[in-house]
Design a protein that fits this description.
By secondary structure, the chain is an alpha/beta fold. It folds into two domains: about 230 residues, Rossmann fold (3-Layer(aba) Sandwich); about 70 residues, VC0802-like (2-Layer Sandwich). Strand 7, helix 5 and strand 8 form a beta-alpha-beta unit. It is globular, with a radius of gyration of 23 Å. The termini are far apart.
Amino acid sequence: MTAASKTPQAGGESLVVDGLTVRYGDFLALDNLSFKANAGEVVGLIGPNGAGKTTLVRTICGQINPTAGTIKVAGAAIRMRSAKTGVVGLVPQEIGLYPFMTAEENLDVFARLYRLDRKTRRETVARALADVDMTTHAHKLVSSLSGGMKRRINVAAAILDRPKLLILDEPTAGVDVSARDAIHGLARKLAGQGLTVLLVTHELEQAELICDRVLILASGRRRHFSSPDELLSEVYAGRQQITLKLRHHPDETLRPLLAAQGFTSADGNLVWSGLGHEEQTDLIGETRALVESNNNLLQEVSVRRPGLESLLHDIATEKEASSDGLAA
C-alpha cells in the first residue's frame, strides 16, 4: 500500500500557512502561498529550481520575516527568530555533527541547549536514539558511521524536544538506496507518532510512494496540493509515458523525427521519453518503424502512467517557454 492510498491521520491541522508572501527587493520568492497540513501526515515539498522551496523552509523556521501572511504550527505563530522549542525541528541537508564524539555525546550536546538536567537529558537522548533505530550505535564515534546513520543521528537531534513539525531537507542526498529507504521509512514512522513531516526531496518516485500529499511550488506559487494518485490521475487522465532506449545514437535525420513524434531526450542520445494517449495503440509500432527505417533499433520500450517526474518536467518546460517569450 502506498502512502498516497491512505487517508491522512485525523490529528487535526498542525501546519497552517496563510497568504505567505516573501520578497527579496523586487524579486517575489513566495506569492500569496496558502496550504494546511495535518498531524500524522508526510507532505512532500517539490518543485523546479527557484520555485521557492528553500524560502518556504527558512520562513517556517523563523529565519526570514515574511512580507505578508502568517504561519502557525500547532496553533503557535511562527515569527522571525522565535525562540519557542517543541514546535519545529529541522534536519538540514548538511550533516551537523561533531565527528570525534559519539552519537550519544552529540545528542547530549544538543540536549544541553534546552537546559535539561542530567537525568532528563539522558532519558531524552535515549528516546531519540530509539526513535531513529540507532540505540545499538549510541557509543560509536560519528566519524565511524555510514552516511545514512549520520543522517539518522541528525534526525534524532531534530526531535529531541518533541517538535510538532519535522522538516527533512533533502535527507537522502548522497546516501545509498538502502539508507534512502531507511530514512524514508523513518519519516513514515515519525508521522505515525503524530508529527507532521515536511519532506523536501528530488526523489520523485519515492515521494509518490511515501507522501500522503505533495505540495508543488512553481515561481513561488502553489501549483498543486493533493495526494500523488489524485494529482497524477487528474493531470494525466488517459495518458501514458513511453520511454524508448535506442541501440545506437540517433543521427541528425532521426533526432527531429523523434521530436516530431513528441519524444524528447535530455542529451539527444539513447533514451527518449514522450507522452501518448491510451487510444494511440499504434504509436509504439509507428515509432519502431520510424527508428528502423533510419538504420537504428529499439532496444527497450517501457510504458507507465506519468509520474511526478513528468509533471515537474512539464512545469519546468512551461517556465522556460515563458522566459523565452519574455526575452523575445
